[in-house]
Design a protein that fits this description.
Layout (H helix, E strand, L loop, with lengths): L10 H20 L5 H30 L11 H15 L2 H20 L10 H23 L6 H25 L27 H31 L1
Helix pairs in contact: 1-5, 2-3, 2-5, 3-4, 3-5, 4-5, 4-6, 4-7, 6-7
Length: 236
């Protein structure tokens, strides 16, 4: 089977998204009646594999698809989100969940909907891209549903502060490593259709990214805010 050029929301794209969503909800559902200690243990397995996946992926990208090592440092937002959710599942350090939750849903979901890939399934690039981003969503769903973690308003603040501190560091790394790298897409826009096409040309798109990112964090949190407001009003 020869891979065809990637078509956004084509059959392969939609089928893959449906599969990821199904796994993200079926895994927590399948262990719903297990003891919480068992769920924690399974969470540690998920966390371990999340970290291993991010450490192994650069070798696959390099040796199977000839990507340069300089492009493969796992510091893209989705790479860090996967590492952070893995660390959280292993250590229960709250900040890692908060950052991963907002970065993973905000950045990861956008990546899944508008992937920066050249070809459809079964191209290795397609497979590795969706395995990585899909596992991120599964891990966040498991931490949120099975282990009953959720963001708070303080989590939104922590996510924003952490992002604002991280962004200039990533920008400096891009500058130091040269034009071959484009971590966080701060140096240039991704190829293909994405929200980045609505922004000014780099680096003037960075203020827009900060504003949109901040709004997005509050949008992601809004269902929890509405639930809390409704619950409080109903209780009264």
């Amino acid at each position: 089977m020869v891979a065809q050029p990637f078509l956004i929301f084509g059959i392969s794209h939609i089928a893959t998204l449906v599969f990821i969503i199904a796994i993200a909800f079926l895994l927590p559902a399948s262990i719903k009646n297990r003891k919480f200690e068992d769920k924690i243990f399974i969470g540690k397995i998920v966390g371990f594999f999340a970290i291993i996946l991010e450490l192994v992926k650069p070798f696959i990208w390099h040796y199977s698809m000839n990507f340069a090592w300089i492009e493969l440092i796992p510091i893209h937002m989705c790479n860090l989100s996967t590492l952070f959710i893995g660390i959280f599942l292993l250590t229960k350090k709250r900040l890692f969940f908060e950052v991963s939750f907002f970065w993973g849903i905000g950045g990861g979901l956008n990546a899944l909907l508008t992937p920066d890939i050249p070809n459809n399934f079964p191209d290795p690039h397609f497979i590795l891209f969706f395995v990585g981003h899909g596992f991120l969503m599964v891990a966040i769903a498991y931490a949120s549903i099975s282990l009953k973690n959720r963001p708070t308003l303080n989590s939104v603040k922590n996510g924003i502060y952490f992002s604002l501190v991280s962004l200039p560091m990533i920008y400096i790394i891009n500058e130091l490593l040269g034009p071959e790298v484009n971590y966080w897409y701060l140096a240039s826009k991704p190829e293909g259709e994405s929200l980045f096409n609505l922004f000014p040309d780099p680096p003037m798109h960075i203020p827009a990214l900060i504003i949109i990112g901040t709004i997005l964090f509050f949008v992601i949190y809004s269902p929890y805010w509405l639930y809390d407001s409704f619950k409080k009003e109903y209780a009264e």
